[in-house]
Amino acid sequence: MITTYPETHNQTTSPKFITEAEAYYKTAHGGVNRKHIFTNEILYNIISMSIEKYLMGFLTSKNQMPACHTLGNMIKEVKQHIPVEDGLAKKMDHFDKLQFICSFALFKKEPISDNDIMDMITVLKEIRAMVHENIA
User: Fold this and answer.
1) ∠ CA 84-85-88 to the nearest 5 degrees?
2) Number of domains in the chain
3) For a Cys-Cys bond, which of 40, 53, 72, 125 suits 112, CB 3.0-4.6 Å?
4) Could you tell me the CATH number of the domain that includes residue 70?
5) Whether pLDDT at 53 is above 80
6) What's the whole-model pTM score?
7) Contact between 109 and 99 (Cβ < 8 Å)
């Protein structure tokens, strides 16, 4: 179910999400070079938060709130507004599978490799560019 809001909602909400996404983006990039402080699990969560905030900023700019906040589901909702490469959507689904913490019954965490983090940084850059190019 897609929730839509009045036109004025995006004027205050969307920029806040983008500002928060940029802060997480900056932290993620700095954290990659500070492995003694930022473990892969910490980086996974920071990068995920940045991606989520960018997608929320995009969706709220379209007066839409996602029904679910997994990265894979959010990118599917973005696809309703702009083209998204299938490979990007598949990577987002993969990232969701690394940590599934939305349910105590299905709680699952996989080891997060350096390659996973580098893939996530690449996707983060793609999402950031896509949102900045297409935000209303």
Assistant:
1) 100
2) 1
3) 40
4) 1.20.120.330
5) yes
6) 0.86
7) yes
